[in-house]
Amino acid sequence: MKTGPVIGHEVIRLDAVDSTNNYAADRLARQELRHGTAIVAMEQTAGRGQRGRQWDTAKGLDLALSVVLLPEQLAAMEQFGLAKAAALAVHDVVADCLAQAGADPSEVRIKWPNDVLVGRKKIAGILIVNELSGGLVASSIVGIGLNVNSRGWPQEHGATSVALATGRPQDLDGVLGRLCGRMEHWWCTLLQAPARVAAAYTACLWARDRFCNFTLDGEPFNARPLDVDGTGRLLVETADGVVAAYHLDRLRFQR
Ligand code: BTN
Fold first, then answer.
1. How far apart are CA 41 and CA 13, in angstroms?
2. What CATH code would you report for 11-203?
3. Of all atoms in ligand 1, which is nearest to the CA of residue 51?
4. The pLDDT value given to residue 249
């Protein structure tokens, strides 16, 4: 099992690419990438977001990063652990930036499944593509879009950046280095003590124990998030005390 500080040991820097995730997938298919390789682009021309959406990053201002992981023993059933680990890594870096700037780091939360928010505003999104083989995760491309120095969103966009949240411009390379470091930490923790990853993720869960509006199978639904199970289902409780777990294909936070 690989345990050394390998994530971000090798960094491929691209001026422009369609998507760092696509780039990683192409080179991975040709077996050209090692475990822990990080791919960063100054500009993405067709950045990919969740559910087929586009992901925009401001050229040279934000972080568009894909990390390649080649687990040796991670069961396919446990693959949501990768989403938890990645979200926690981003959480830690953003919380640390806020703390250093004298802002409240507890404002940083993980919105199920793996958006990172400051207050109610999204600061980062994560898109993970796993290849499964024989009941195991053969490879994983962890795509992270972190708004670092962007400042210009309309209010209704509901987005923020590290620079906006801290009131300070940030060194992009410094943020990248810290992110790889926290990825390494949570990746190793996932292999050695997955319950610790689960507990940390639960502790950071946005809107935990607070009644929220969702849609369930497209219909309005009100419940409070309690936890996320090992397969990535959100455990919620309705006002009349019914507890159930749902995947993202059925349950969505209402905007
Ligand atoms: C989301 O929709 O919230 C997920 C966004 C993920 C964006 C990142 S940017 C780096 C990597 N490359 C992509 O094309 N997408 C991910």
1. 6
2. 3.30.930.10
3. 2
4. 94
Cα–Cα distance, 17 to 34 (Å, whole number) = 20
Identify whether the C-beta of residue 62 lies closer than 8 Å to the C-beta of residue 149. Answer: yes
Please tell me the predicted confidence (pLDDT) of residue 33. 97
Q: How confident is the model at residue 4 (pLDDT cuts 50, 70, 90)?
A: low
Cβ 66 under 6 angstroms from ligand 1:
yes
The atom of ligand 1 lying closest to the CA of 22 is 14
Amino acid letter for position 87: A
CB atoms within 10 A of CB 9: 14
Check pocket membership of 68 for ligand 1, CB cut-off 6 A: no
Q: Which of 61, 67, 111, 144 has the most ligand 1 atoms within 8 A of CB, as the residue to mutate?
A: 144
Average pLDDT over residues 62-84: 96
For the chain, report the end-to-end CA distance as a whole number of angstroms: 41
Q: Is 20 in the pocket of ligand 1 (CB under 6 A)?
A: yes
Domain map of the chain by residue range? 11-203, 212-253
- Residue that the structure tokens 């905007």 belong to: 255
Question: 11-203 with 212-253: one CATH topology?
Answer: no
- Nearest atom within ligand 1 for CA of residue 49: 2
Cβ of 158 closer than 6 Å to ligand 1, yes or no, is: no
Query: Does the Cβ of 114 fall within 6 Å of ligand 1?
Result: no
Q: pLDDT at residue 180 above 80? A: yes
Find the helix or strand (DSSP H, E) in which 181 lies: helix 172-192
Specify the CATH number of the domain 212-253: 2.30.30
For the residues 58-75, what does the mean pLDDT come to? Answer: 95
CB-CB contact of 203 with 196 (8 Å)? no
The answer to whether the predicted template modeling score (pTM) of the entire model surpasses 0.90 is yes
Q: 154 has which bridge partners?
A: none
